[in-house]
Known about the structure:
Elements (H helix, E strand, L loop, with lengths): L14 H34 L11 H14 L2 H28 L2 H6 L12 H52 L11 H15 L4 H11 L1 H10 L11 H11 L2 H17 L3 H21 L3 H30 L15 H9 L4 H24 L2 H8 L4 H32 L10 H10 L3 H42 L4 H9 L3 H6 L23 H11 L46
Amino acid sequence: xxxRLGSGPPWYCHDWELDFxxxxxxxxxxxxxxxxxxxxxxxxxxxxxxFVYGQSMLSEEEKHKAVERSSFAKxxxxxxxxxxxxxxxxxxxxxxxxxxxxxxxxxxAFAEITASDMNLPTVGSDYLHLMEAVHMQLFVAMxxxxxxxxxxxxxxxxxxxxxxxxxxVWIEQIMSKTDKNFDTDTRSLLEFKKWRGHFLHGRYGCVxxxxxxxxxxPKTFTKIMGALNxxxxxxxxxxxxxxxxxxxxxxxxxxxxxxxxxxxxxxVNVSEAAILTIVLLKVFLAILxxxxxxxxxxxxxxxxxxxxLFIVLTWTITLVFRKALAESEEDIKVMKGVSWLxxxxxxxxxxxxxxxxxxxTLQVLLFFFxxxxxxxxxxxxFWNKIFQDGKAGPIGIAILYCVGFIALxxxxxxxxxxxxxVTALPPFFSNSNERIVQMVAVQxxxxxxxAARAQMAQQEKQNENKRPSQAVKEEKxxxxxxxxxxxxxxxxxxxxxxxxxxxPKDQQENTEDPPPSPSKGExxxxxxxxxxxxxxxxxxxxxxQPTASENPDANxxxxxxxxxxxxxxxxxxxxxxxEPAPLPIGKNQE
Length: 590
């Protein structure tokens, strides 16, 4: 009875014996949890594809796409909260399983197992308390893990808001024809534009990779071309065709948003591959504990250091590629010494999915970090050594884990969203991104960006049409200016005489040729009286007497009489008279 209540001496002599039994119990719980989740997800899948009014005629593939699309329409915090509730449900099922095993005497049956090379619990109550401790350690580890997860989710939301803001600003710039003013762009907006340039036109561009799927992944290529609505034979499709369609209707902002959402969901939803990896590592640790007689304190220090090293390395590589992508739209220029990295990552991305590999590794390492620290948190002996005995070792371990957890809470929210965005671009882009590309191409069309680019294309077309007419106008203006310049230049006396002999037509009809303008300082030589000739008299008659078309009275045969103006005298009209007559009166002079 005392042993059942936790009193009496411990059943183990070395810490590694306790660690071995705990590792075996953790493996059993993880495998049970994995089986429970498989059944749970199977039931959830059937419920998601069950009857819905208006969707009974959809195929299974269309229903699956609708469910997959709806996952990106949910808030990330809601997905985090639902996953947290699911983990608590699994832990509740494990607690129920422990209770059932204790009620059925299975713990007592385990106590009958013995080993020749180590000590094992000898009563069922020891197994009961040990399994309860293992279960509570998993519970606290999940709380710590999801505490880091909510920080990643909040940071991902902020990154998505930044993408959406940059998209809106870029559309406004396109409408106002200021999208080429890179000097006034913010760092985030300029980075967004450069990333899109790499997606379309880069050396390792995603468009070129999609075209390469025609040979490597023909089925995937056919799906993508159908999603992009490219109605051409596959052999005739070129890079320019895909670039044109992606520029016109593919939402690059949505592609980045879906990539960040997918990474955040991957971290929050502990994948099946990550759980199996943890199980294999726990089996290895159990063998290490029993075979090499190594306790978990030494191993946990190694895994914690490895976790920090992996996160720092991932963040450093992300920053290197993020800076390289912001330098140019055509090529990826990384710092000296690692210029080989884009080529290597381009080759690796065709073999494995680098994003999934890194995120699954991150899940495993975060689990071990949280699981190790939670084991110390629920151990009262650990806290007694700190507050009662004042031992330096436990105090240092507690400080290191607290500082490490705070550092992870600061680094992970910055590293994961940026890593997801960078790995969605070259040189990490591969057929693993086909799912998001197809989803965006089929379901999403950026109407505002399409309208803005259509307006920009129309304006460019109008400008091109104006250029020929403007060139012709400039030629005419240039010819007119040259003629005016030639007219202003001094002429020879012979040219002046010939030009004065033949005045313009309007001057011939109205007035005589004006006298040549005198030079500066010279008085004008104007004759005081000029005797008209017979031609001048005929002009006088034609000026004074209007024609029938000008005088309505001429139609009735009456003679027109012109009264001289007051104060002026007119000479008698005598044919052939040699008497002096006034100068001809033109229309302008009158």
